[in-house]
Each structure stands twice: as C-alpha cells, then as structure tokens.
C-alpha cells in the first residue's frame, strides 16, 4: 500500500483523519483529498502541519516522495511505532564529564 508524506505522518503518529482535518480547519472530505493527492496542499496548510508535527514545511512539497508500507506477515507491527529521545539529559552529562576531566587534568599537573 502506498501513502503520501502527509498520510504517512498521520498514520505513523496514530492520528485519525478527523483530527488532522480539524488541525487544518478543513472538512474530513477535503483532508482526504489532500492526503490522497487529489487536492493541492496550500502553503498555509503545510505551515500548520509542519508546526503540528514539528518538521520543515518543505517536506510536504517534495515531489515523487511517497512512502510504501510493506508491513505484512506474521512479524509485522500494526500499532504505532515510537522512537525514544536518547539524548535526554545528554548535554548535562557531557558538561559534568568535561568539568571532571578538567579537574583530573589539574590534579595530574600537580604530579608533574
């Protein structure tokens, strides 16, 4: 099954068409035409979607970029797939390690 970028974003974030249509302030029918590619997305709508999904609005205007879902078979996943932000607190950890590193360098200088 082939999806547009807009449809892929919606399904990967587990939103109903009604929810995204409300975000765009359009009818569900109009949203479905946009998602299927039968109606052109306006720049204002792209900006709203970009703000909603926290992405660059240009992403919605890339030509020839369709997403194909090959999620079939016994080991397929039918629910939402989430990612985890592994950088949470990373900056603080790096800063702490840099301070400790500087302190250790100062201690080593005492022995030279």
TrEMBL record:
Residues 21-60 form the HTH cro/C1-type domain. InterPro entries: Cro/C1-type_HTH, Lambda_DNA-bd_dom_sf. GO terms for molecular function: DNA binding. Gene3D superfamilies: lambda repressor-like DNA-binding domains. It holds the Pfam family HTH_3. It comes from the Bacteria. This is Helix-turn-helix transcriptional regulator. It comes from Algoriphagus aquimarinus.
């Amino acid at each position: 099954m082939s999806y547009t970028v807009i449809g892929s974003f919606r399904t990967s974030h587990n939103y109903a068409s009604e929810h995204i249509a409300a975000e765009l302030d359009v009818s569900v029918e109009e949203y479905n035409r946009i998602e299927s590619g039968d109606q052109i997305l306006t720049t204002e709508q792209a900006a709203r979607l970009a703000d909603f999904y926290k992405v660059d609005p240009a992403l919605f205007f890339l030509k020839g970029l369709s997403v194909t879902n090959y999620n079939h078979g016994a080991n397929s996943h039918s629910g939402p797939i989430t990612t985890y932000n592994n950088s949470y607190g990373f900056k603080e950890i790096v800063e702490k390690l840099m301070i400790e590193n500087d302190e250790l360098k100062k201690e080593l200088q005492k022995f030279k």
